[in-house]
Amino acid sequence: RAEWAWPVKKTLSKTGVKNIVLVDGVRTPFLQSGTTYADLMPHDLARTALQGLLNRTGIPKDAVDYIIYGTVIQEVKTSNVAREAALGAGFSDRIPAHTVTMACISSNQAMTTAVGMIAAGQCDAVVAGGVEFMSDVPIRHSRKMRKTMLSLNKAKTLGARLALLGSIRPAHLAPELPAVAEFSTEETMGHSADRLAAAFGVSRREQDEYALRSHSLAKRAQDEGLLSDVVGFKVPGKDIVSKDNGIRPSSMEQMAKLKPAFVKPHGTVTAANSSYLTDGASAVLIMSEEKALALGYKPKAYLRDFVYVSQDPKDQLLLGPSYATPKVLERSGLKLADIDVFEFHEAFAGQILSNLKAMDSDWFAKTYMGRTSKVGSPPLDKFNLWGGSLSLGHPFGATGCRLVTTVAHRLKKEGGQYGLVAACAAGGQGHAMVIEAYPQ
Amino acid sequence: GVATSCGCSVQITRSRRNTLFSGIHTCCTFAWTHVNYEIKGDVAVIRISDPNSKVNTLSLQMQKEMTEVMDEVMGNSAIKSVVLISSKPGCFIAGADINMIQACKSTEEVTRLSQEGQKIFEKIEKSPKPIVAAINGSCLGGGLEFAIACQYRVATKSKKTALGTPEVMLGLLPGAGGTQRLPKMIGLPNAFDMMLTGRNIRADKAKKMGLVHQLVDTLGPGLKSPEERTIEYLEEVAIDCARGIVNKKLALTKEMNMMQKIQDHVMSYSFVQNRIYSTVEKKVLKQTKGLYPAPMKIIECVKAGMEQGPDAGYLAESQNFGKLAMTPESKALVGLYHGQVACKKNRFGVPEKEVKTLAILGAGLIGAGIAQVTVEKSINTILKDITEEALNQGQHQVYKGLNDKTKKKSITSFERDSILSNLTGQLDYSGFEKADMVIEAVFEDLAIKHKVLKEVEAVIPPNCVFASNTAALAIKDIAAASKRPEKVVGMHYFSPVDKMQLLEIITTDKTSKDTTASAVALGLKQGKVVIVVGDGPGFYTTRCLAPMLAEAVRVLQEGVDPKKLDSLTTGFGFPVGAATLADELGIDVAAHMAENLGKAFGSRFGGGNLELLKTMVAKGFKGRKSGKGFYIYQSEPKPKDINPELKEIVESYKMMPNPAVSSDSDVQYRLISRFVNEAVLCLQEGILTNPVEGDIGAVFGLGFPPFLGGPFRFVDNFGADKLVEKMKTFEEVFGNQFTPCQLLLDHAKDPSRKFHN
């Protein structure tokens, strides 16, 4: 009886679909913004990640067909940060590069763009990555001031210039700061997360407990040397940075003392149970399986099905994982129980816990997702076991690659076959990807 | 704990419940139908919900049950604090029960009602256990007075949350302590603003004013529906607040910044207060012309409380409340309220097909206005004109209307853009094959209307309704060109469409019921108060207006200048004077209307000389739109001056006034009686189905004085006999223009006959 001899879990390889593999992935240490990276520029971080990838994989600098980076808050001087970083990292100047943006799933978008290019047969080897630099953000002059200054460029006579200068009023001088708020709803993400937690009845205590878990697991992973995707960074004029610096397991008592950060005075989302502003960059090398094998690589994982979802940016802003998970599992013909490793982006403890509750609710699945039943809640003993965005940090554009690389590493370490990445993003969007371990 | 029995109908005796459940999580159902309570730890959560209505009102039953529940809660020593919440989504308490007041026969009876309310709320205010009002949805009138008697208020940020004292709009005052508590809570200026305008205060503003202490966000979907979970969340926060007050963790005094402290201090001086009273009184007199008694009584009550102490204040409040309830003004305004409610329902049933795509022909003021109120309701709207210039102007009008709302922060710029995405501006008929209804708002000319109708019928699907927006052309004449007259209906909008509440729908003998239902449904969706009238020249509203304007022209010819004419009409209670109204309407439109109706009705519609208007039009004095009419309009709208060239025109049509019928009061009654007689004639002829729609149409479409309640209520209150008597005097001088119609004569003969019971 042949079927009894089949492995419990089959490969997700599909006929007619190219096998695409993750060769390797690296990242800079993720640092709280305003710390050691403070004086750099975004492309410096991206460059470091790219150099790290070059070193780690030993790939020739001209063997890559294309480079894609994801980022959210763009430095206006390097708006195509992928190109600047690639040139700075010493890649051949013959390799085209572009930058994508999709909020917190920007580097996921970079990776899936790479997958698409390879699947379409246009490329064989693509570097994808992400970068975010919150130590410096573009703060603009007011619109009025900008208008005056632009007119000044065109003014032909001294008199016209003086008249323009004379028209400047104190109100012109108020700067415009970028806000982590939805353009469509004008609501900040933290505020939305607090409302989401309230909607799902997630208590402050549950959130603090989850955040503590994230920090404790990250600390353990760091101490045990599991975060092997981190590459050291000699910051010019400063020390070598080799570790994430935002991992700080606290105590429930300490965390309970914090006041709510967004919804006052009765809110539940605090600085301690939210991800923090982070500087960092990541990079992965993605290839067709044939190419990887031809170049003599032992790939780490297959990148399989992926989905993007989007929903109401007001009341369901951060529920992307709940929508994306059942959809991607369905595409892959898997059940939640088939997944060995879960890596979900932790924007807020309240957001993660709300998603877990949503996924475990038949009512929610039927009423809002048009499904017949719930997908189920991922078991916590498989979930974000090496920490998450809450503790490791969350450079918006860079987190996606960290999640995928971590899944690959955990699958190997834990001996699992399937991993699932899921993340929410501003704009009420979401993403999920199934990753399969590469046969040992 | 013991299993809860929320909602169960088992009646538990008082003693048994006390021994079994005291201090334990439970739910009490003591055969109460409107109010129940649940004990959560040491907090009693009192939930209100009227089982027979979508909204909660402070009916006698509600008051009785509330008193019983309160007594029980206060008597239970395990309960330390109380939360008061409504389990209805979108409504806390919408006010007192109007019928309860209307049922009273005397001033004393109403005063007693007020005093009972005052007593209940005094008990609430003096409760040793803090009571937190948890507000989601409308908290109006008596509901607001209840809330402000509580020690603490938490409100949701829901768009439906509105706090207000709308009593003044019914000719009443807040009669259960509102006039006494509000000024202390939010200061004199804010309190007067609320009580004298009756406007609704949204949650964020209420927090800033100090009307509520804390705000709670509305929630999206979780494990329950957003509405349900939001109420639960509000309750959870309110319970925390209640405990916080008991534990002294939450201060009851409002947080004030330096400005507010200074303001409060300044306000405490009596000369400052007196200054406020006199300013407010002046403003009220200027706006009401002394025709509305309620605002002055409100000021009087506030003053009594501030100057002579609470006892005098509460007494003044209850007595004035009783007096106001018996005034004809209040009865008229309450009548209008009921009428408005009736005209917000579709008596023609649910149409077979909902309008999902509306096409509008003509992007002028009216066409663009209709487009604005339609796109706001997320209906696909095609706006078509024949020139790019006209289309551009129309689309700009829609944008501007929405952008003004953005500036006022009632919608975000994103919402504005998203609403605008429902609008398609075009010069051709593409997409008309998907239209469920077409409203034409082209030039008022039968030939053009026929041309347009034929063009449209060639492209629309068979079940599409064709509606004509016209002020005077008979719909059957327009429908004469139609292949399917059962689908043709009139929809008379009033300008500016986004501000004027009325929509007059005109049906012909051939208009099908479903077509009417469809037109009414769209009007209601657009937020209109809808009346449905029969077909005929001028339908109802224009037909009432025309004789009044003809009379106004005669008055001008008699040498009364436009300013005086305006002050006579506004003095009677019209919001806009007759001359200004004609300028707003357009002198050309008025002339056109007068000519058409003159042809249809003959000399009865005469009076003023039509040539006067025509001469004005010939000289380019078409009213506001042309910059000159009876007045001249420069960039600043006010103060406007009389058009200096008018004198010469009037001079050439001069008439000698007859001193017997030319006093100020005579002029007013000449104007009003022609209006009213025509309205009654419309009912007599069946153009109107009922007097209610007649009153609503006149007040909301033509600005008939609201305190008179409309022409029919006016006849009831003034007396048909007295009106007929006046008209007969005028008839002797002017002839058939003042001949009372048969129905009016019938009412004059039999004083027991009334239009409204």
From TrEMBL, chain A:
Pfam families reported in the protein's UniProt record: Thiolase_C, Thiolase_N
EC number of this enzyme: 2.3.1.155, 2.3.1.16
Mitochondrion in keyword set: yes
BP terms from Gene Ontology: fatty acid beta-oxidation
Domain of life: Eukaryota
Main location: endoplasmic reticulum
Pathway noted in the entry: Lipid metabolism; fatty acid beta-oxidation
An example Gene Ontology CC term for this record: endoplasmic reticulum
Biological role stated in the UniProt entry: Mitochondrial trifunctional enzyme catalyzes the last three of the four reactions of the mitochondrial beta-oxidation pathway. The mitochondrial beta-oxidation pathway is the major energy-producing process in tissues and is performed through four consecutive reactions breaking down fatty acids into acetyl-CoA. Among the enzymes involved in this pathway, the trifunctional enzyme exhibits specificity for long-chain fatty acids.
SUBUNIT field: Heterotetramer of 2 alpha/HADHA and 2 beta/HADHB subunits; forms the mitochondrial trifunctional enzyme. Also purified as higher order heterooligomers including a 4 alpha/HADHA and 4 beta/HADHB heterooligomer which physiological significance remains unclear. The mitochondrial trifunctional enzyme interacts with MTLN. Interacts with RSAD2/viperin.
Homology family: Belongs to the thiolase-like superfamily. Thiolase family.
The protein's name: Trifunctional enzyme subunit beta, mitochondrial
Organism, scientific name: Electrophorus electricus (Electric eel)
Gene that specifies this protein: HADHB
From TrEMBL, chain B:
Site residues by UniProt (Important for hydroxyacyl-coenzyme A dehydrogenase activity): H492
MF annotations from Gene Ontology: enoyl-CoA hydratase activity; long-chain (3S)-3-hydroxyacyl-CoA dehydrogenase (NAD+) activity; NAD+ binding; transferase activity
Matching PROSITE patterns: 3HCDH, ENOYL_COA_HYDRATASE
Pathway involvement of the protein, from the record: Lipid metabolism; fatty acid beta-oxidation
Reaction(s) this enzyme catalyzes, per UniProt: (3S)-hydroxydecanoyl-CoA + NAD(+) = 3-oxodecanoyl-CoA + NADH + H(+); (3S)-3-hydroxydodecanoyl-CoA + NAD(+) = 3-oxododecanoyl-CoA + NADH + H(+); (3S)-hydroxyoctanoyl-CoA = (2E)-octenoyl-CoA + H2O; a (3S)-3-hydroxyacyl-CoA = a (2E)-enoyl-CoA + H2O
Residue span, 3-hydroxyacyl-CoA dehydrogenase NAD binding domain: 358-535
GO process terms (BP): fatty acid beta-oxidation
Pfam family, one: ECH_1
Gene3D superfamilies in alphabetical order: 1.10.1040.50, 2-enoyl-CoA Hydratase, Chain A, domain 1, NAD(P)-binding Rossmann-like Domain
PANTHER family: TRIFUNCTIONAL ENZYME SUBUNIT ALPHA (PTHR43612), TRIFUNCTIONAL ENZYME SUBUNIT ALPHA, MITOCHONDRIAL (PTHR43612:SF3)
Subunit structure: Heterotetramer of 2 alpha/HADHA and 2 beta/HADHB subunits; forms the mitochondrial trifunctional enzyme. Also purified as higher order heterooligomers including a 4 alpha/HADHA and 4 beta/HADHB heterooligomer which physiological significance remains unclear. The mitochondrial trifunctional enzyme interacts with MTLN.
Family: In the central section; belongs to the 3-hydroxyacyl-CoA dehydrogenase family.
Protein name per Swiss-Prot or TrEMBL: Trifunctional enzyme subunit alpha, mitochondrial
